[in-house]
Specification:
Blueprint lengths: L15 E2 L2 H4 L25 E11 L6 E2 L2 E10 L12 E8 L2 E7 L10 E9 L5 E9 L10 E13 L2 E5 L5 E2 L24 E8 L6 E8 L9 E9 L2 E10 L8 E8 L2 E8 L14 E7 L7 E2 L5 E4 L8 E6 L4 E8 L11 H6 L1 E5 L2 E7 L2 E8 L7
Parallel strand pairs: 1-15, 2-7
Antiparallel strand pairs: 2-4, 3-4, 4-5, 5-6, 7-8, 8-9, 9-10, 9-11, 12-13, 13-14, 14-15, 16-17, 17-18, 18-19, 18-20, 21-22, 22-23, 22-24, 24-25
Family: Belongs to the glycosyl hydrolase 68 family.
GO molecular function: hydrolase activity
Protein name: Glycoside hydrolase family 68 protein
Amino acid sequence: MNAVNFRTDFNMDAVSRWRPEQVAAIPMQADASLPVIVERDVVPLLTGHVVWDMWPIAHEDGSTLIADGRSFWFFLTAPRLPDPDLRHDMARIRLFSRGSDGWLDHGNTFPNGFTPGSREWSGSAVLGSDGATLTMYFTAAGRAGRERTFEQRLFETRGLLRIEDGHPHLGGWTEPVESVVADGACYARADQREPDFGLIRGFRDPGYFRDPADASEHLLFTGSAGWTDEPYGGVIGLATRIDGCWKLQRPLLSAVGVNAELERPHVVFHANRYYLFWSTQRSRFAPGGPSGPNGLYAMVADQLEGPWRPVNGTGLVAGNPASKPQQAYCWWVTGELDVISFIDRWGMEGCDALSGPALASGQFGGTVAPSFRILISGDQIHAASETEPDENGG
């Protein structure tokens, strides 16, 4: 499959918006705060390494693959460094599994030098109907062998998965191909050498979704509006497979003027409605405007193209408590409505994470956060109790 620059006259008036007045109502959500993470929650997955953004191996219908009592998850990983922010410059995708005995490590997903970026960033993984062909959608950040940049490109590759006694055998990857390319008009090109005012444009986090209404295939992604110079121009982009190629569509959601980054977007189809989830941070809300916590957010619609309306009236599903505003990040909702994230800067006790990398490193979890379930009732979503892996690896 070749990347296609697809241009059309998008009807931008039809793009749903996350509006300031919706965000402004977030402080009234008294029940949206997650429990405080404590020391017993911080259990490393891999000695000497940190893990963060994660996504499951899922079937085409969005349900999580369970084999031999285990679910299988890809994480971004890097060696534990004195400054945890440097992990983004050496991120690799690594496979883990979870069962009744906890988490197991299964090694790096791709051979050294296989992917076209200087590091591997987030995506999604879909197991085909044959039960063996796995398609990995991922972000290639920068370019291999070149000076570090914040360029982001969407790639995909297919491999073969076999699971024996709970142990995955994954390989035979095809040469990565670029899925779809930012057009520079609707979607800004993410090609910065360095951040601007601490912000980077987005064209990353490809999330696969097959629409049960017509079996059409889509990729969602974190994007930046190309039609404005507004630095807080976050959008959730969409590409649709047409005649074997991914082609850009108008964004599903715009937060222009409200928020700069709507990260890790993914859709869950539940009770005949579409639920669009993403994560964002307080620091990504536009200065001078309303803001919400680092948290999991969502919109709901009756069809994929929208219109999308904010769940709970605000968009916030669950966020970090005010006393621990950076304790966790990057929430992923499975087709079974389980939610997983990673422990970020926990136990800061009022300290400023910018006061120095040593402090930040000491309080950076770099491991899996306590999971929880969500309860959905129409346009309302609330977090339920924390969960532990059950006998099916869920």
